[in-house]
Every structure is written in structure tokens, then in C-alpha cells.
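Researcher: Structure for this, please.
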Amino acid sequence: MDRLCLSELVDVATALRPPFDPRELSAGIVHLGLGAFHRAHQAVYTQQAIAATGELGWGICGVSPRSRGVLDQLGPQDGLYTVLTRSADETRAEIVGAIREVLCCADDPSPVLQRIGAAPTCVVTATVTEKGYRMRGGRLDVDDPEIAADLAGRAPRTVVGVLAGGLLARMQADAGPISVLCCDNIPGNGVVLARLVDDFAEHLPRSDVLRSWIRKQVRFPSTMVDRIVPATTDGDRDDVARLIGLRDDGAVVAEPFTQWVIEDDFAADRPRWERAGATMTADVQPYEEIKLRLLNGSHSALAYLGALAGAESIADAMAIGEIGELVDRLMREEMARTLTIPDGFDLDAYIASLQSRFTNPALRHSTLQVAMDGSQKIPQRWLPAVQSLLQHGREPRLLAVAIAGWMRFVSHRRSDVGRPLPLADPMAATIAEHVAETSSPRGLRDSLLGIVPVFGAGLRDDALVCALVDEALEQLTSRPVRAALRSLLR
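Model: Predicted structure, C-alpha cell format:
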């Protein structure tokens, strides 16, 4: 079968093609982190904004920080790929043509720095996951070997190093103001990224000049992004081939739901993303907390408890009655009580939509995929809610069950049906060391709560939290998940 590319588009049904000629686009956006989420989210919004306004200067230069895999997928396809949207009732395809150039920092970062430094580039976006920013305690980890290599004068390879290098090139070229949007699940992500870039710039020659220029010429709007994008399978690629009549090695899969909330604080021009359904607001934080706690927090709980119970997908986990009940109660009885709800926001409808999304049988979102990088996710998704409940005199009983689920997941590494549970986490070695210190549930709790980068400095000493986690961990390590939850949910 012929492969998707510009020359083959003429043979694709008009309804499936990009709503403009991709060859007419010029690049006004540089995006760092060209994974499936960006391709199913921001790139789709950008395509729809271009179609709605006819503004052809918002093509995307997509950058893979480390891996050439995406270049091998999209390069031969002229940047084109298909988004396969799956619901319980239908599967539909849409070819995206917003990405007009694909680069890899591992090959040579200089073209990326030049793109960021070029006057037509007005926006840089990033989706590299929490761990991609190489921070510790909200600040740049200057002891990280890759950060240290960038600071020592190597052509930058890290995301923050590339951003700082690109902004330096822009200052030197007098190319004008620019906006940088972090689109990862980090609270206050714009503020955090601005701080990381400043931390990096502080270590560069003539740092005062660059840092002053950044403060005057660069904005870092915060954003909140939401769309479930599971890993693409061979079956998905077969469905794409059937629908578009061409082979597509870069296809991505997504649910119908999508949301993008953007702080309206830009230094220069930008796409009219609101014409594609994005929400522009003066304050992203309430939306961010709703999503991080209700969706992401529940998603992580589903992943750990579901994987332990033998569920391969999030939908399978939701189908287990005890886990479904835990998630519903976790959202309504604990997470919701920690939130500030924006005017006009229907919380009950949002929770109902989450339950519908989690049970979408067409997605097959792997519990192990969602369970990855727990050490980076727990501080954002669970701990703020735990602290809020404690401050208001409430017991984080269900969150303690989720924490105990993670502890059994990282320590026992096998499900109730004997399935191996790999630990894919940047702190895997540290976690393994803490697990090896003890064999008892109480000792395991004490040791793992002592990992300060994950749980902070005070949780280990909170008697209520320790008692709640002990109760849940005792059940989860001595009985199958379903039986343990039946007891814990009484």
C-alpha cells in the first residue's frame, strides 16, 4: 500500500484531508516534544484555527528532543499523519497537515535554535512530560548530567537548554518578542517553565543581559490540556489504512473529548485557537486543579489498582465494580471538596463526562501506560488534595487507598492474576532501594513515604495519613484488590 504523503493526498476523500493546502503554510510555531499527545491535541487545534481564519503563517516546526523515531514516521510523510478518533459508537479519521517541518535535537540542535531565534516564530510550545524538564523541587536540577553537560558548553540537548539557547539566539538577532507555552501536567506550568529557563540562563555568560531581555520580551502563559491519547497499535494503523486508503506510520489515536485552557498573556501574535474551541482566560489555575485532581488523579488511581487487579486497560479497570466505586467516591467525596469551581462550570456534568471517558471501550488505554512515571505524577495529582483535606480537618481516606495501591504496585510488581508489573519510572532505582529496606506493610509505608521528592518532607510524620495508608496497605498486600476494596469501602 502507498504511504501517506503530500503527493498522495489527491487520492484521499476530501472530507479526510486537511482543510487547506499544507504546502501554503509557513512556520510560526516551534513545538518541543513531537509525541502522540501533541499531534492529537495542540496540532489539531492549530489546524482548525488556520482553517477558521485563513491565517497561513501558523505552521508548526515539530522538534523531537532525543528520538529519531518520530522523524522516521513523519519525515517520509511530509509531516502528514492521521488522528483516529474512537468512541463507543464510531471511529473516524482526520489527516493533519499543520506540522510543516520535523527536526531532532539529538542530530544537531542548531536548526532548532535558529527556528526559535527567527522573527516569524512567535510561539514555542512544549509537551515533554513532567520528567522532561529535569527539575527538582520546582527548580532546575543543575546536578542532572544532561543539564550539566549543556551548561558546560555542549550544544544544548535538554528542553530547557534548547529553550534558553533559542531565546539567546533570538536576543542576538533582535528578532522581537515571543511566547513560550508549557502544555504538560504541571501546576502553574508557565510560571514553572519561566523559572527553569531563568535558572539555566543564570549560569550562562553575561547572564544578566539575557535574563533581563527574557523578562521584557518573553511571556510564559500557563495552560491546561486534556485529551486521552493511548498508544497506537498495529490494529489502529490497519483501521487508518482502511479509512484513508494509505499506509500511515505516524497515526495517533484519541478520544472525542478535547480541552485546552490558555492564559491570555502573550508577548506577540498567536493563532486564534479560541476559534477552534480553546478557552482563553485570565486564570488557568481553577481549571488546572479540576483536571489534575479529578481526571489525572483518578486516572492514576485507576491505573495502579486496575493493573494490580489484572485489568489491561482503563476501561477494564472501570468495569471492576469495586474500582469503579472507589473512583466515583474519590472524585465526589474527596477531590471535589478541594477545588474552587469557576463560574458557570458544571462539576456534576464534568464528573459524569470523566466516567464516560474512562469507560470508553474503544480506546484500550493501557493501565501500565498510565502508571508510568508515578514519582513525577503523584506530587501533582494526589498530594495537593491530601494537604487540602488535612488543612480542613477531613480524612484523605480514599486517597490513602490510592497511595497504598501505588506502594503495592512498586513493591510487589505482580498482579492478582500473576501478570508482571514493570516499574517504568525515572526514580525506579531509588524506589527499589526503599522497597528493599523492609518486608512488612508498615515498614514499606514508612520507607516509601520517606522519599521526599515524591511525598515531601512532612507526610511521613502525619499520624493520620500513616494510619490510613497502613490500613489500606495491610488489606492490599494480604488480599486480592477486589476483596481489599470491598473491605476498605464499607
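Researcher: Any notable elements?
Model: The CA atoms of residues 214 and 281 lie 23 Å apart. The radius of gyration is 23 Å.
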